[in-house]
Amino acid sequence: MNKLNIGIVGAGYVGLATGAVLAKFQNDVIFIDISLERIKSILSGRTPIYELGLNECLNYGLKKGYISAFTDIQQVDRNLDFVFICVQTPVTKDNTPDLRYIKNAAKSIGTFLKRQRKYAVVVVKSTILPLTTERTILPILEKYSDKKAGKAFGLCMNPEFLSEGSAVQDTLNPDRIIIGQYDNRSGSSLLNLYRNIKCPKLRVDLRTAETIKYASNVYLATKISYTNEIANICEKIGIDTIDVMKGVGLDKRISPYYLEAGCGFGGSCLPKDLKSFIKLAKSHRYEPRLLESVSTINESQPLRIIELLNSALKDMKGKKVCVLGVAFKPDTDDIRDSKAIPIIKALIERRANVMVYDPKAMRNFKVLKLNIEFAKNIEEALRNADACIIQTAWSEIKKLRPQNFKLMRNKIIIDGRRALNKNDFTDAKIIYRAIGLGRR
Ligand code: UDX
User: Fold this and answer.
1) Cα(275) to centroid of ligand 1, in Å?
2) How many angstroms separate the CA atoms of 398 and 100, rounded?
3) Contact call for residues 273 and 127 (beta carbons, < 8 A)
4) What are the φ/ψ torsions at residue 405 (nearest 5 degrees)?
5) Residue 387, H or E segment
6) What pLDDT does residue 47 have?
7) Is the CB–ligand 1 distance for residue 265 below 6 Å?
């Protein structure tokens, strides 16, 4: 089989992971991103984002000569077999999708296809609401290429299910691959591209593929809000949610995943996709009551941290409160919709002096320009602190033992992610409170 030429438009988490893995399978991968900084960074072998294993994968592709990168697809000097659309699809303030980037990507791909003589398949990976591929992307591609889909080019909607922090692993070993196809030829071509990836592959139409993505993400969101609600009830009745969920997760129908209580789900996908799907349902005059509750629980969950802190430290004014972890989850530098943001804002409102520490995400967090201090390491964050909040369960934070907290002035620990082992904290000199941990 000849090497395939694959264009990846949008070099964010999804684009980089997809491209790096396709290069690993010995395809020629061309990244296209409007950010020159990003392109330079890719070509110099430094991934523009922190993602476990991505640097190694990218450097393998660069060394073998499989990877190139441009700021504009019109600079690509060869025919492409596939063009992946991996640009971001943010939402506006009222939760309607902002299709600016995806429309621009479709326009430039259409213009590129106009001069291409060979059949190519355009693959949409960005998350978009049902019907967007058919009603928005397809007409733009046809208009700008002056060609008809199905004849000159194919079209697929291939949702991405990777999680940040394990993007490369998830792309190499996915649970399933969903191929939404415009026609049979498009779907068969994409199926062939993924032949080396062993997992169930499901072929559906474009709008079903788009809906599978949303239905999956809102299910995960629902499971987490369910978990957090059970955790809040466990606190009230004096039991530990971890023990409860261990028992619940043994049921194969439920599974042990996404049963970890915490201060809420963040990130670039779950909160945004949930809100967009609610809005979509409403636009079809359906009231999604379950999903509304999932969202409400998630908005209030970070404030449980403040309640827990308040139960141990009544007046926060002038007190040093350190927040360990600002990334929305471990192994990523991403702070989008991180629950550290509402927690820290609530602390600032209560006039606490906030100092944060995160092994990877502080650079991104500084951009928010909150009135807080940044610690060089955990020790600096803990030194003379009156309370410590754990917001991200980074492995170095999970390793903390009671002796590490000796640096604090008041030994109050609020564990927002159940990162520590409660049995280590039985010493009466340390106050250890945690989400879902009831006190008898
Ligand atoms: C998610 C989906 O998992 C992925 O399939 C989709 O493609 C994109 O959205 P991601 O945003 O990387 O991926 O995060 P995920 O690992 O799902 O975690 C989301 C949030 O939920 C994090 O804030 C995490 O801390 C929280 N979470 C997760 C919990 O609070 N409890 C859990 O049990 C699991």
Assistant:
1) 15
2) 41
3) yes
4) -90, 0
5) strand 387-390
6) 87
7) yes
Burial 392-414 (b: 16+ CB within 10 A, else e): bbbeebeebebeebebbeebbbb
Which of 269, 305, 331 to probe ligand 1 with, by most ligand atoms within 8 A of CB? 269
| DSSP H/E element including 390 | strand 387-390
* The model scores a pTM over 0.85: yes
pLDDT tens string 183-220: 999 999 999 999 999 999 999 999 999 999 999 999 99
DSSP string, 147-212: S-BTTTEEEEE----PPTTSHHHHHHS-S-EEEEESSHHHHHHHHHHTTTS-S-EEEEEHHHHHHH
Q: pLDDT by residue (tens digit) across 4-32?
A: 999 999 999 899 999 999 999 999 999 99
Q: Two tokens at 423?
A: 């049995």
Distance CA 432, CA 240 (A): 13
Task: Look up residue 185 and give its amino acid.
Answer: R
Indicate if 234 belongs to the active site: no
pLDDT digits (tens, 9 = 90+) for 126-140: 999 999 999 999 999
What is the pLDDT, as a whole number, of residue 355?
98
